[in-house]
Design a protein that fits this description.
Elements: E1 2-5, E2 37-43, E3 55-62, E4 68-73, H1 79-107, H2 113-135
Parallel strand pairs: 2-4
Antiparallel strand pairs: 1-2, 3-4
Helix pairs in contact: 1-2
Length: 136
C-alpha cells in the first residue's frame, strides 16, 4: 500500500491546499528568487536501506505565487514522481517540435518578423524547461 503525504511549507496562508494535479501546465519564473514549497512522498511500510535516504527533486511546476516546488521522496517513486516525469517528457517533446519548426522557418525567407519573435519566445520557454529538467 502506498501512502503519499503532501506538505506545503514556507509561510502558507491558512486554509490553502496543495494538490499535485493542480499544477499549472507551464512552469513559472526563476527558482532562485523565491522560497520553495516541498512535497513529501513516502512509501509505507518500508524496510530501512541505503535507498531510503530522502532525495530532493525540483518539480516542473511552481506554486501560484511563483515559488519552486520540490519533492522529497524515499526514491521508490510514486504518483507525484510519475506526474513530474510525464510533464518533463511533454516539455522536452514541445522543445523538439519547436526546434523542427524553427528550422523550417529559417529556410523560408518570406516568414514575417512577428512569427520569428513569437517563435523566439516559445524557444526561450522550452530552453528554460529543458534546463530545469537537466538540473533535476
Amino acid at each position: 500500500m502506498r501512502v503519499v503525504k503532501l506538505v506545503r511549507m514556507m509561510n502558507e496562508p491558512p486554509g490553502s491546499e496543495l494538490s499535485a494535479s493542480s499544477a499549472p501546465a507551464e512552469p513559472a519564473g526563476p527558482a532562485e528568487s523565491a522560497e520553495p514549497s516541498e512535497l513529501i512522498e513516502r512509501s509505507e511500510p518500508a524496510e530501512p536501506s541505503e535507498q531510503d535516504t530522502p532525495q530532493m527533486r525540483l518539480l516542473p511546476w511552481s506554486t501560484p505565487d511563483d515559488r519552486p516546488c520540490f519533492l522529497i521522496t524515499d526514491g521508490a517513486g510514486g504518483p507525484v514522481s510519475d506526474l513530474a516525469d510525464s510533464i518533463e517528457e511533454m516539455q522536452l517533446g514541445i522543445g523538439e517540435e519547436l526546434l523542427r519548426y524553427a528550422r523550417v522557418m529559417h529556410a523560408d525567407p518570406k516568414v514575417p518578423d512577428r512569427e520569428f519573435r513569437f517563435l523566439s519566445r516559445r524557444l526561450a520557454e522550452a530552453l528554460g524547461d529543458a534546463l530545469r529538467v537537466a538540473r533535476n
